[in-house]
C-alpha cells in the first residue's frame, strides 16, 4: 500500500492510499482522484519522506540511504522545507472538513428547492428545520433582503458520500 501526499491546483493538501504507483497513475489518468476539499481533479503528487515509527522513540534527525556501489549506508540530512504563508494550515483544513461533515450530518438536503423551502419555513408555511441545498447568487441576495438568514457554503461533493 502506498500512501501519497497529494495537492490540488488550489493548494489543498491531502493523502491518497493506492495499491501501487501504477494504480495511482491509472486512477489519476481516468479522473478518479479528486481533492476532498474542492473536488478539483488537477491533482499532483507532492514530495514525501517515509518515516518509521518504532514505538515511543523520537524520530531520527537523519535518514539513511544506501551509498551508490559502496554497500554501506550514507547519512543524508533531512531538511525542513518552509511552507509558504499562503499555504493552508493542515489543522485548519481538518477543522473545516469536520465542520462541513457536521453540517451534512445535521441538515436535510432540499437540493434546488432551497430558496423556496427557506421562504416557506420563514413565513410559517413549513416546519422549521436545518436545511441545505443550492441557490443562485441572486436567490441568496433576495433571501437575505427578506430577512432570511442563509449562508453560502462551498460543500465538496465528496463530503456527501462516505470517505474511504
Q: What series of H and E elements makes up the topology?
A: EEHEEEHEHEH
Rg over CA atoms, rounded to whole Å, is 23 Å
Oligomer status: single chain
Uncertain residue ranges: 57-86
What is the 3D form?
elongated
Mean pLDDT: 75
Instruction: Count the beta strands.
Output: 7
Please bin the fraction of helical residues. 25-40%
Biggest beta-sheet profile: 3 strands, antiparallel
Distance between the termini: 14 Å
Q: Based on helices, strands and strand pairing, what is the structural class?
A: alpha+beta
Strands side by side in the biggest sheet: 2-1-3
Number of helices: 4
Beta-strand content estimate:
15-25%
Structure description:
The chain is an alpha+beta fold and 164 residues long. Helix content is 26%, strand content 20%. The longest helix has 16 residues, at 90-105.
Amino acid at each position: 500500500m502506498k500512501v501519497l501526499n497529494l495537492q490540488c491546483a488550489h493548494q489543498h493538501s491531502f493523502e491518497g492510499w493506492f495499491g501501487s504507483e501504477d494504480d495511482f497513475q491509472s486512477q489519476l489518468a481516468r479522473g478518479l482522484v479528486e481533492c476532498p476539499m474542492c473536488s478539483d481533479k488537477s491533482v499532483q503528487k507532492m514530495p514525501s519522506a517515509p518515516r518509521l515509527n518504532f514505538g515511543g522513540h523520537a524520530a531520527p534527525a537523519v535518514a539513511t540511504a544506501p551509498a551508490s556501489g559502496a554497500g554501506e549506508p550514507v547519512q543524508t540530512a533531512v531538511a525542513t522545507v518552509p511552507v509558504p504563508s499562503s499555504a493552508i494550515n493542515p489543522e485548519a483544513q481538518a477543522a473545516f472538513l469536520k465542520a462541513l461533515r457536521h453540517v451534512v450530518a445535521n441538515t436535510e438536503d432540499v437540493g434546488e428547492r432551497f430558496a423556496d423551502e427557506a421562504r416557506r419555513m420563514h413565513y410559517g408555511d413549513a416546519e422549521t428545520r436545518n436545511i441545505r441545498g443550492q441557490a443562485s447568487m441572486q436567490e441568496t441576495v433576495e433571501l437575505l433582503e427578506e430577512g432570511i438568514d442563509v449562508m453560502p457554503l462551498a460543500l465538496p461533493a465528496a463530503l456527501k458520500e462516505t470517505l474511504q
